[in-house]
Amino acid sequence: MINYKVKATCEAAGMRYPCYFSGGDGCTSYWTSGCIRYDHGGGSCYSTNQVLSANMCGSTNPPQCQSLDDTFVYMPGIWSDDSAWGVDYETQSHGLPGANYNNKYALCADFDNCASSPCTHGTCTDGVGSYTCSCENGWKGTDCDQDINECTSSHCVHGTCTDGLASYTCSCENGWEGTNCDQDVDDCSSSPCAHGTCKDGYTNYTCSCENGWEGMNCDQEVDECASNPCWLGGTCLDQVDGYSCVCPQDKTGKNCETGITFCSSRF
């Protein structure tokens, strides 16, 4: 039970290894950068075994705590052969050099890996030497700290996408509407053709006008008198889809095109 084997055993189990001292202020002896500092909350440099013995057995004397029987803790530099430091409950002894013992227990630590709240936008599940995060909607990554860009899927068919938190918004091009800008705007919905039939198009419409009406919206009456149909002195009266002529006394016909012959009477 030498130090590097204690270390390797803990790591193989997915756990970490504490150093001999528990880690109060100024406790630097028998310490390396890879150790876990088991802090008992005090300022004295108690050994890790003393702290565990007090917590598990109510005594700070490790050999009197059966739970620590045959355990060896990582203690670099105390012996030249790199032995770990051990406890034997049966013989009520401690400070045992690990190089003299085999098939004992390595003192490893499995701390709450979620204690530091590593999942920025998610729920943490503790594991042996690790943790996993279940991310909230809109977040991804090992620590749920990466915003998902909802616009990468090209939701906006005919528009510009703006990413949001677990959402997106589309600014539609002219002539399109809907959450994903995939619905053609019905330009005839407002009934723009006053006297005609509307045909929807992309971003526009066309009107087929009824007889007697013209203009983009079929809202301008056709002036049937513009061609001066009442020739030879008649007066034209415009009507919807038609006209009428008021002829002089010597003319008749739809367009005043027929002359009237007046005959005198004899008695």
TrEMBL record:
<dbReference type="GO" id="GO:0005112">
    <property type="term" value="F:Notch binding"/>
</dbReference>
<dbReference type="InterPro" id="IPR000152">
    <property type="entry name" value="EGF-type_Asp/Asn_hydroxyl_site"/>
</dbReference>
<keyword id="KW-1015">Disulfide bond</keyword>
<feature type="disulfide bond">
    <location>
        <begin position="151"/>
        <end position="161"/>
    </location>
</feature>
<dbReference type="InterPro" id="IPR013032">
    <property type="entry name" value="EGF-like_CS"/>
</dbReference>
<feature type="disulfide bond">
    <location>
        <begin position="209"/>
        <end position="218"/>
    </location>
</feature>
<feature type="disulfide bond">
    <location>
        <begin position="172"/>
        <end position="181"/>
    </location>
</feature>
<keyword id="KW-0325">Glycoprotein</keyword>
<keyword id="KW-0677">Repeat</keyword>
<dbReference type="Pfam" id="PF12661">
    <property type="entry name" value="hEGF"/>
</dbReference>
<feature type="disulfide bond">
    <location>
        <begin position="135"/>
        <end position="144"/>
    </location>
</feature>
<dbReference type="Pfam" id="PF00008">
    <property type="entry name" value="EGF"/>
</dbReference>
<feature type="disulfide bond">
    <location>
        <begin position="188"/>
        <end position="198"/>
    </location>
</feature>
<dbReference type="InterPro" id="IPR001881">
    <property type="entry name" value="EGF-like_Ca-bd_dom"/>
</dbReference>
<feature type="disulfide bond">
    <location>
        <begin position="247"/>
        <end position="256"/>
    </location>
</feature>
<feature type="domain" description="EGF-like">
    <location>
        <begin position="184"/>
        <end position="219"/>
    </location>
</feature>
<feature type="domain" description="EGF-like">
    <location>
        <begin position="110"/>
        <end position="145"/>
    </location>
</feature>
<protein>
    <submittedName>
        <fullName>Fibropellin-3-like</fullName>
    </submittedName>
</protein>
<dbReference type="InterPro" id="IPR000742">
    <property type="entry name" value="EGF"/>
</dbReference>
<dbReference type="InterPro" id="IPR009030">
    <property type="entry name" value="Growth_fac_rcpt_cys_sf"/>
</dbReference>
<dbReference type="InterPro" id="IPR018097">
    <property type="entry name" value="EGF_Ca-bd_CS"/>
</dbReference>
<keyword id="KW-0245">EGF-like domain</keyword>
<feature type="disulfide bond">
    <location>
        <begin position="114"/>
        <end position="124"/>
    </location>
</feature>
<feature type="domain" description="EGF-like">
    <location>
        <begin position="221"/>
        <end position="257"/>
    </location>
</feature>
<dbReference type="GO" id="GO:0005509">
    <property type="term" value="F:calcium ion binding"/>
</dbReference>
<dbReference type="GO" id="GO:0007219">
    <property type="term" value="P:Notch signaling pathway"/>
</dbReference>
<feature type="domain" description="EGF-like">
    <location>
        <begin position="147"/>
        <end position="182"/>
    </location>
</feature>
